[in-house]
Structures
1.
Amino acid sequence: MEKKTPTGELYELLETSGDFCAVDKLLETEPITFTRYLKELMKTYQITGTGLMRNSLLSKSYTYQVLDGSRQPERNVVLRLAFSLGCSLKEVQHLLALSNNGILYPKIRRDAAIIFGIRQGYSLAEENEFLEKIGEQGLL
C-alpha cells in the first residue's frame, strides 16, 4: 500500500513548487468515493460488513448494495452507519459530503442534537432515543 502524502504537505508543495508534475506524482490516482471512504473507516474501526449491518440495523441486501457502490444511501442511513462505526464528527461530515447529503449544520436543531450525540459518543440506539426524547425525528 502506498504511503499517502498529508494534505498540509500538498498545500505547501503547491505554494512553493513551480512544477505541478512534482505535486501530481504525489496525488492519489483513485478518487475517494463514499464507498471507498466507508470501507477505510470499517478497517480503522475493525468492523466487518456483517457487523456494520447488525450495528446499523440495515438489511443485509441494502448494506451490501451500499458497500459495493450500487446504492447511494440517504442522509439518515449515512448517519446510522457513522454511529454504528463510532465515527468522529469530522469523519461523519466527510461521509455526508461524499454521499452527496448535506453536512450537519449546528444552527439546525436536529443537526445540533446529532452533533451533540457524536461528541458524547452515543451509540445509534442512544442517539435515536435522544432525538425522540427532544421531539426530533429519530434515525431508525
Note: The mean pLDDT is 91.
2.
Amino acid sequence: MLTIVPASASASASASASASAPAPPDGPALIRPATAADIPALLAIEQLSFQGDRISPRNFRYLLTRARALTLLDMRQGEVRGYIMLLFRASPSLARVYSIATHPRYKGQGVAAALLLTAEQAVLARGYATMQLEIRCDNQASLGLFQSRGYRIFGQYPGFYEDGMDAQRLEKTLTEHLRPELTRAPYYRQTLGFTCGASCLMMAMKTCDPALELNRTLELQIWREATTIFMTAGHGGCGPHGLALAAQRRGFPCAIYVNGHQVLFQESVRSQEKRDVIQLVQEDFVRQALALGLPSHYRCAGVDELQNCCAAGGIALVLISTYRLTRERAPHWVIITGCDEHYFYIHDPDNSASRSGDERIHMAIQKKDFERMARYGRQGTKAAVLVYPRGADTQSL
C-alpha cells in the first residue's frame, strides 16, 4: 500500500502557467491513491484540462479498481489539485503514464512535478524499472516537464489523438541510480531473426576483449558454428554447447549449464527428419565439448552462479522465453551485463521494430522475474553459457 507523502510545491518546474492566477499555498499538500469516491473531482479536472481524449466516468471507475493501475492525487485542504494515472504492463519492468493533469488554478506550483516524483517511487516499489508515456507534439509544457525529469523521446505515433495530432513517445529508466557499473558491456543488435545466440556471444567476447571487432561476418561465422540447423519453421538457432565451442575456439574460457540431457529445440519442429538432425548436431556438440574438457553442468545456473560470473568479470548468455517480453513464445538468447541486490540487467539483441532501442539495453529485470523468464518450452529447458576473459580458470569459478 502506498504511504501518504507530502507533495513539495518546489519539486521542479511543472507545467506552463495558466491564464488563471495561481492559488496561494494554503496548508500542507499530500499525495494519496485515488478511490472511486474521487471520480467527480477527477472528471472536473478532465473537463478543465483536455479538449478531447477525456477519460469517461466508466473508464475512471474501471481503472481505479483494476489490479494493474494506480492513480495518485495531489490534495490540499480536501481539494484535488491534480492527478497522475499509471498502468502496469504484464511484461516485466514496464509502467506507463496513462494520464496526468493539474487543475488550472494550481498550474505553476509544482503539482505535476511532485506527482511524477511520487509516481516514480511507486513504480520502483512495485518492482518496475521503466516508465513510458505519450505526449501531444503541441504540448510543449508537458514535454518540458518530462524532459527535465530525465525522460527522452524515442519514437512518435502519427495521428494518435482524437483530433489527429501526433504523439511523442517518451521513456525513462528509473534504476540508473541503483545500477552497478555497466558500461563495460557493449551492445550488438542481431541483423537476422535467428542470430540472437551469435550476437550475444559477440557481446560477451568484446566485453572480455575490447579490441574485438563486431560485424556481420563474425555474427554469421559464429551462427554457422553453433547452429542446431533447424528450428521452428526457419533457420536453426544456437545451442549452448555450440556457443561454448565457438567461444573456446577463440580463446575464451566458458562453462555450460543445462538442466538435463534433453535435446534442445527438438520439440519446436514437427518433421521427424529435422528432429533427428537436431539430435545428431547436439550429440556431436556434446562430444566435442567433452573432448575439449569444457566444464558442463547438468543443472540450472542459479542466481548465485550468475552473480559470481558477473563478479569474476564474465558475461552470462542465458536462454529465455520471449513470452514475458513480447507475448510470443520463442527461445531467445540474452546476456546479463550486471546485477545488484534486486535486478539483473540484460542486453537483448532482438532486431524487431516493435521495441525501442533503449528497451533492449541494460534492461532491469527483477531477479524473481528473470528466473521465470529463463526457461523455454514444455519441458522447461534452462540453459546458460558463462563466458570469461582469456586466461580465467573456469574450474575454480
Note: The CA atoms of residues 191 and 216 lie 7 Å apart.
3.
Amino acid sequence: MTDTEVKRTVLLVDDDEDFLFQHRLHLETAGFNVLVAHGSKEAEAILAQQRPDLAVIDVMMENPDAGFTLCHRIRKRDASIPVILVTSVNSETGLDFTLSTDEQRSWIKADAFLAKPIRFEQLMREIDRVFSRPAVKV
C-alpha cells in the first residue's frame, strides 16, 4: 500500500475470540483498518456509526442464523458493502451452504461464503475477488 492509497476498512464479526485476534492481526498487517465486533448486536452498533468497505461475518453467533440476519440488515442499509460469510456450520451440522445456485444466492445475499477453518490466504483471495467485482444484487 502506498502513501497515497486510502486504507480500506473491514468489519470483522465473530464470537470466537481466537478467530478475531488472528484475522485482525493478519488484516492489519495487510494494510486494512479493522473494526471488531463480538456479535451481531455489537456489529449493528458499529454500523450505526461507521461504514466499512467490507464485512466478514460468522454465521452462528448469538443465534444460529445471526450472521445471515446481519448480512440482510447490511444489504438493506447499504447494498454496496461486500459481505463474506464464514462458518463452521458445514462441519458441525453437515448442512452445506454455498453460493453455487440461484436459490442459495437469492436468500444468502453474501458475496462469498467460506467454511471454517479458513487460512488467511483463503480470506485474502476472497477479499481480492469481492473488491474486483460488482456487489450482490438485493
Note: The mean pLDDT is 84.
4.
Amino acid sequence: MDIPRFHIAFPVNNLKSTKDFFTKVLGCSLGRESDKWIDFNMYGHQVVAHFSPEDCIKSNVNKVDGDMVSCRHFGVILPWDNWEKLREKIKNKKIKFMIKPKIRFKNLKGEQGTFFLEDPSGNVLEFKSFKNDSMVFEK
C-alpha cells in the first residue's frame, strides 16, 4: 500500500541512550542529527527525538483487552512476518516488554498481534500487526 509517511517528534532525556535504542534495538537508520535532536527512519517514517528532559513525563493509562495501555504512545503497524521478526529480535536481545507480545481481540474484528516497549526516556511504543490488513479500521 502506498500511503503518506508520518512525522512525529517526542522528548527524550538522553540522546545517546535514545540513539542506541532506536538503532541497535529497533533497527532504525539515522537521518540528520544535532546536539539537540536526532532524526530516525522508522520503517519509512520520520521520528525525531528532541532533547527536552523536562517534558519526559509518564502518561495515564487505559485498560484495553486486559492490559493497562499508556494513553500516550506511538508505533507502527507491520506486516505479520516483520512483526514476528521484530518480536523475536527484542526477545533475543532480552529487552523488557512493557506489555508482552500477544494476540489482542482474538477471534473478533480487529484481531491483532501487539507488544509495547518503553524507550530509555519513558516514551511508549507499540508495534502491531493484523493478519488481515482490512481490519485496521474495521468497527
Note: The chain is about 15% helix and 40% strand.
